């Protein structure tokens, strides 16, 4: 995997610790000054950075997981509203040229669920980890996380983009999928029991679009998925989650523009 590049150093130096999902740009002069000031720090083996876009649900997973395990990291904003990807993204993820990208000691880790496992493998311990210790429970967590990516996300996209009968079909499928997750959760505090874990981190970013689902589809998730909505409120009490999740109305407005929703 590629080591630190000059472009990476410049982008990393001009970023800040992820205390908010929104990013404010700096002037080229300020970026250059930051690069000169922080060059030595950028070469440390343990340096951690997360390249992402504030409204990217997949990237929110990584930022929440890092915060859950108390890992200090720098946040680098990659504006997905711009068609051309930055040099940093092209270098660190030349295959997909997508975010999120976790950069640890100059080496990139790509793919949101892959990043979650890497974070757990690297910084998890006996006292606190994300994946359950039991192999069967670990496999179940991975299965339902894959269900979210392969089913829920693709159905969300069809639901938001389609109209008429196709929209109604997609809405029904989306509700069925969310109800299935509601059943898996049951009356537990979190998906793995009493501790916030891997599957919670994988799903909670999608909740930032739940209000958008309701507005777009004319239904109530409190009525359709009561366990899931109680879980959302419980997750939002956690500092790791509430410091990362964006405003739900902003998320829906952004997706309306992306999908051409009137």
Automatic annotation (TrEMBL):
Record carries keyword Nucleotide-binding: no
Keyword line: Transferase
Domain (GST N-terminal): residue spans on this chain: 46-127
InterPro entries per UniProt: Glutathione-S-Trfase_C-like, Glutathione-S-Trfase_C_sf, Glutathione_S-Trfase, Glutathione_S-Trfase_N, GST_C_Tau, Omega/Tau-like, Thioredoxin-like_sf
Positions of the GST C-terminal domain: 134-260
A molecular function (GO) term: glutathione transferase activity
Main EC class the enzyme belongs to: transferase
Signal sequence, renumbered to the chain: none
E.C. number: 2.5.1.18
Name of the molecule in the record: glutathione transferase
